[in-house]
Amino acid sequence: MKILLDTNIIIHREANKIYKPEIGQLFKWIDNLKYSKYIHPLTVEELERYKDPKALDTMSIKIESYNLLKHQAPLGQEILKVSENIDSKDNDINDTQILNEVYEGRVDLLISEDKKIHTKANLLGIADKVFKIQNFLEKVISENPELVDYKVLAVKRVDFGDVDIKDSFFDSFREDYIEFNKWFNRKAEEKCYVCYSDNNLTAFLFVKIENKNSESYSEITPTFTPKKRLKIGTLKVSSNGYKIGERFLKTIFDNSMQYGIEEIYVTLFTKRPEQEQLIEMLEEWGFIYHGIKTTQNGDEKVYTRSFGKNIATDIKNPKLTFPFLSRQTDKYIIKIEPQYHTELFPDSINTKEDKTKYTENEPHRNRISKVYISHSQDRQLKSGDIIIIYRMGETTPKKYSSTITSICIVEDVQNNFGSFEDFFNACNRRTMISKEDLKVSWWDKYPNNRPFVVNFLYAHSLPTPKPTLDDLNRLGVIPDILNMPRGFIKITNDQFNDLIKFAYKL
Length: 506
What we know:
This protein is α/β, with parallel strands linked by helices. The chain has helices at 7-14, 22-32, 41-48, 53-62, 77-86, 90-103, 115-124, 133-143, 171-176, 180-186, 244-258, 273-284, 338-344, 363-366, 398-401, 420-427, 435-443, 469-475, 493-503; strands spanning 2-5, 36-39, 67-68, 109-111, 130-131, 156-159, 191-197, 200-210, 220-221, 229-237, 263-268, 288-295, 298-306, 331-336, 369-374, 386-391, 403-414, 452-461, 489-491.
């Protein structure tokens, strides 16, 4: 397979100073999979204009280790139209020529961190062939689990003092904030969230609860009105293929629920691609631009997100108001077999399960966004509907070992797939089921009744002890004590309310 590497990837890889540590993991995977690394002649020209003379000498030697595309594909009418609408600089036009190589099929994939390249790939219908580092790592890790030869530790809550401030992971913070080391050391006894990959720090999160009228916010324009807020004080996630960003978002939302927060906010610079990507992720989950924070370190952008039970939920795009749900939608119970349950819902682990089995941060465990695959004839689910997760029991009597564990929100439903590859791409990285099993046990099982996919958001884990099948029978949610109906079990608003009141002891 031919992998074309954009100029920004080569600069990050071959510069004297490593700006993106995940580059090493990217190249390791490309080599392990025996893919061929290609660069475009325009990349060589751009590198020759690189500002750092020391880095230039180094890169001039190192780029000889890449395959150089000998012939450039001519630009067709369709890609020229896209270029005319989007490109405004010479570099943009060069990027279009690089993108054209994958559009014309001269290379198989393109890896780039450039936002405009991905916008153009979407317009050209080749988004599935153009990857950011994070997306590429997710893809290859999920498709090649046998090649993952190291452990990825789960997100942990630790003291600042337990984290090595000298770690190069924090270099970007030191560049952005003059007093970063002093600020970090003052926090020694406070809590933060970390994730290590192969013994390297790859993700860090610090959140702060700010009570109403406790902060002046004088540096923020326009100023904030008094509210109880959660500030995302420090957040950085290196691309590692394990969707830690969504896992940290779940942590942020869980803290906001616990402390009765009215608004979440974050201030951040936009100096590097990783910061731009963080903004993209936040916007995807409902954060909007508010204004500017002016400090001695420069101007930071401020993004906010309303939070609380009184916000109007967005049924068509539930990510924007997650984890809140609408009671005006349909409600369904769906069954999950025990071997799949905790892999998909790590926060809803059964008290009798061994938690040490779930310390590897595989992509499907960390995602808020997950999939449910079914052959059911009941395919009427729609965006905003509520699904209640029923974990099937392992021991008899099942009425005591089967439990309701989680509340989720339907994002969308995908049906009528044209091919197995379309079906696989809809499931990939959101499920623990291997590609082979998706083919044999799902796609090929009923040729006249192909499976469909429900994309949903993992919103709430019910408190322990969780309602059992026996409880459902007594509440009248599932009236037959001997049988659990097949497929999606639709319940009424009253039944759902009874279940929630019972689970939360209301």
